[in-house]
C-alpha cells in the first residue's frame, strides 16, 4: 500500500498537468513507431493471403484491447508515476517491483531511445547523405533536443507529443483515404481462401496474428505518468481504451488499403511495404519515396519523444520509495520535472548510440520484458482481494480480459524464447543476480533510516 505523503514530500513531487489528449498522444505516439514500416510485410509473409493479412491485424488488435482494459483498471486504482513498478509494489511483490525498474533502467529503456535516435538519423540520410560518426552525432543531437524539451516542461512536452502524434497519423490517414478509391476488388479477393479455410489456413491466420503483436506494443505508456495526469481516474481509463481503438482503426485501414493495391506476394517480398503501397497510389505515387521518408522521420520522432518523456518516471518512483539512487527522485524547483532521472537515462542512451553491438545484445532482454507484462496482468488477480484496491474503473468480464491478456503475452514469451532460449535465460538470471543484492542493500538502508 502506498505511504501517505507528508507536506515536505508533496513540495518535491510532480504536479498533475496533463490531460486526456496527452494520455492518447503518449499511447498512440509510442505504439505507432518504425515497426509498422516493416511489420506489414512480415505479417503478410506469415498470413499468406490478403484476407488473412487484414484479419490478422483486426483480430490481433482486438486481442490487445484486454491488455489496455487491465492497465486502465490498474491505473485508475493507483494513479501515480511508475507504471508496472507501482502495480507490483501494491500487490505486495516489492522485490519484483524493484527488479521491474532495475531491468527497465539497465536493459530496455535507454536502448529503445538509442535505437530510435539512430533510426531517425538513418531515415534523414534519404535527404542528406550522412554515415559513420556523423550519423551517430545526428542521433545524439535528437536525444539532446528532446531531453531538454522534456526536462524544461512537462506541459510543453505534452503539447509537443500531442502535435507530433497528430502529424504522424495524418500521412497514414491520407494514404488510406486516397488509396481506398483505387482498391482493386479482384486483387483483394484473389488470394483470399474464403470457402476453403482448412487447418493449414487457420494455422496461417494464427501465425499472422502472432506477427502483429509487436505492432501494438506501447499503448499503456501513459501509465508511467499517472501521477501527472489530471483527473486520472477518468482520463486514464478513457485515454487507454481510446488509444487501443485508434491504433486498431489505423492499422486495419492501412492493411485493407494495402491488400487492395498490392498482392500478398508483393507485400511479403518487400523490405519497404509502406513505400511500395504509396507508389501504387496515382495521386502520390511519383513522390512515394520522399513521402514515406518524411513519414518515417515524423513517426520515429514521435516515439523517441514519448520514450524520453515517460520512461524516466519509473526510476523517479523507485527513488521516492528508497529503492533507487536518491538523486533520481529530485524534482527541478523551476521546471517541476524529474530532471536527474531524465538526464541520466538520456546519457546512458547516448553511450549506447556509440556502442551499437551492446545495444543489440540488450535486445535479448525482450524475454524478461515480456515476463514483466505477463506478471503485471497477474497482479489484478492478487489485488482484487485486497482492501486498498479500489479502482475507479472496473473492466468488463474481468476474468476473461485478464486471461486473454495473459495468454497473448504468454504466446509472445514462448515465441521469443524459441528465438533465443539460452540468451533469454541468461538475461533473466543476470537481472536477478545483479538486482536482488542491490534491492536488499537498499531495503536494509531504508530500515536503518526508519530506526533513526
From TrEMBL:
Keywords (alphabetical) are:
Membrane, Transmembrane, Transmembrane helix
Q: What is its main location?
A: membrane
Which GO molecular function entries does the Swiss-Prot or TrEMBL record give? L-amino acid transmembrane transporter activity
Q: Where are the transmembrane segments?
A: 20-40, 46-71, 91-108, 120-148, 160-183, 203-227, 239-264, 284-310, 337-355, 361-383, 395-414, 420-442
Q: Which domain of life is it from?
A: Bacteria
Q: Where in the cell is it found?
A: Membrane
A Gene Ontology cellular-component term: membrane
Q: Its membrane topology, per UniProt?
A: Multi-pass membrane protein
Q: What is this protein called?
A: Amino acid permease
Amino acid at each position: 500500500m502506498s505511504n501517505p505523503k507528508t507536506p515536505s514530500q508533496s513540495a518535491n513531487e510532480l504536479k498533475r498537468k496533463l490531460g486526456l489528449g496527452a494520455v492518447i498522444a503518449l499511447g498512440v505516439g509510442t505504439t505507432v513507431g518504425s515497426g509498422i514500416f516493416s511489420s506489414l510485410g512480415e505479417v503478410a509473409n506469415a498470413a499468406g493471403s490478403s484476407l488473412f493479412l487484414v484479419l490478422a491485424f483486426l483480430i490481433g488488435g482486438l486481442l490487445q484491447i484486454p491488455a489496455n482494459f487491465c492497465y486502465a483498471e490498474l491505473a485508475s486504482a493507483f494513479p501515480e508515476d511508475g507504471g508496472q513498478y507501482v502495480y507490483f509494489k501494491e500487490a505486495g511483490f516489492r522485490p519484483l517491483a524493484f527488479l521491474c525498474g532495475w531491468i527497465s533502467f539497465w536493459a530496455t529503456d535507454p536502448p529503445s531511445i538509442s535505437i530510435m535516435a539512430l533510426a531517425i538519423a538513418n531515415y534523414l540520410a534519404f535527404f542528406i547523405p550522412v554515415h559513420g560518426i556523423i550519423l551517430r552525432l545526428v542521433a545524439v543531437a535528437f536525444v539532446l533536443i528532446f531531453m531538454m524539451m522534456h526536462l524544461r516542461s512537462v506541459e510543453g512536452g505534452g503539447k509537443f507529443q500531442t502535435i507530433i502524434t497528430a502529424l504522424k497519423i495524418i500521412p497514414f490517414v491520407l494514404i488510406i483515404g486516397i488509396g481506398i478509391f483505387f482498391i482493386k476488388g479482384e486483387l483483394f479477393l484473389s488470394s483470399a481462401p474464403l470457402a476453403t479455410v482448412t487447418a493449414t489456413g487457420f494455422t496461417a491466420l494464427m501465425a499472422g496474428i502472432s506477427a502483429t503483436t509487436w505492432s501494438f506494443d506501447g499503448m499503456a505508456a501513459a501509465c508511467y505518468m499517472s501521477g501527472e495526469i489530471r483527473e486520472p481516474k477518468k482520463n486514464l481509463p478513457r485515454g487507454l481504451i481510446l488509444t487501443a481503438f485508434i491504433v486498431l482503426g489505423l492499422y486495419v485501414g492501412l492493411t485493407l488499403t494495402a491488400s487492395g493495391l498490392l498482392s500478398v506476394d508483393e507485400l511479403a517480398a518487400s523490405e519497404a511495404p509502406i513505400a511500395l503501397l504509396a507508389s501504387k497510389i496515382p495521386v502520390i505515387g511519383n513522390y512515394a519515396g520522399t513521402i514515406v521518408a518524411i513519414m518515417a522521420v515524423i513517426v520515429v520522432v514521435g516515439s523517441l519523444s514519448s520514450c524520453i518523456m515517460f520512461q524516466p518516471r519509473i526510476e523517479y518512483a523507485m527513488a521516492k520509495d528508497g529503492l533507487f539512487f536518491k538523486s533520481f527522485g529530485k524534482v527541478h524547483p523551476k521546471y517541476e520535472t524529474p530532471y536527474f532521472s531524465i538526464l541520466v537515462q538520456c546519457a546512458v542512451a547516448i553511450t549506447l548510440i556509440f556502442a551499437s553491438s551492446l545495444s543489440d545484445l540488450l535486445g535479448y532482454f525482450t524475454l524478461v520484458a515480456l515476463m514483466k507484462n505477463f506478471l503485471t496482468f497477474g497482479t489484478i488477480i492478487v489485488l482484487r482481494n485486497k482492501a486498498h484496491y479500489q479502482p475507479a474503473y472496473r473492466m468488463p468480464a474481468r476474468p476473461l480480459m485478464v486471461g486473454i491478456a495473459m495468454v497473448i503475452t504468454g504466446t509472445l514469451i514462448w515465441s521469443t524464447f524459441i528465438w533465443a532460449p539460452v540468451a533469454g535465460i541468461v538475461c533473466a538470471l543476470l537481472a536477478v543476480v545483479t538486482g536482488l543484492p542491490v534491492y536488499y542493500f537498499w531495503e536494509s538502508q531504508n530500515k536503518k533510516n526508519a530506526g533513526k
